[in-house]
Amino acid sequence: MSTQHELRVQQISLSYDTRAVVTDLDLTVPPGEITVIVGANGCGKSTLLRGMARLLKPVSGQVLLDGEAIHQLPARRVAQLLGILPQSPVAPESITVADLVARGRYPHQQWFRQWSAKDEAAVASALARTDTLHLADREVDSLSGGQRQRVWVAMALAQDTGVLLLDEPTTFLDVSHQLDVLDLLRAVNAERGTTVVMVLHDLNLAARYADHLVVMQHGRVLATGTPAEVVTPAVVQEAFTLTAQVIDDPVTGTPMVVPVSRTRRTTEEI
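The structure corresponding to this sequence follows.
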């Protein structure tokens, strides 16, 4: 059973070489909820997640995990508390699915405690929940893009952390498997109390699955709150330069963005 942890970003600035991407950003992640970060391409959402995951060192500011600066904590300690699924991860050559997912258990290993029944159960559960158990003996390189993505999600689940950060976890997946993965993350959040933070491209999926939505623009937070509070025509226009109507999703009642056709708008204006 995962324990809830507090994750906060304080006045963080992130850059690649001399190119500033995120500037003086503050963000508090609600513990035990699903937070989704959205925004136009190049707004800094993936860079922010990399900073939160300790994959990118801040130029200034800090990320706090349970009140401690995450970049100053031992790597093993961070890995026991925080799981990461980066964008386009790369697997070691010729590694099998089972061996890759088992790597999610490494942070829990000690020199005096090797592989255990608990580790075995965590890997088996992660494979089963991502519908990849039948792929266990296959080499990761031999899989389709969608299968590989589900295997990476399985590895993150096997790590069994209180916080899970995912950058575009639905990449390479068809619509059906996108929903499968997002439903799975929601179930993990509900059952274990896992704090989930993910970057998504699809604003409607973000509004459907998020408890807490963060909209970024030009390396800063433009709006934050519940999907109902954040997904408005004005915010969509400002963040995505898109004229749209926002209606209730007929299935979930969450906000759904309906873009206005450029052709139709032009005709009406004429």
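The domain at 7-269 is CATH 3.40.50.300 (Rossmann fold).
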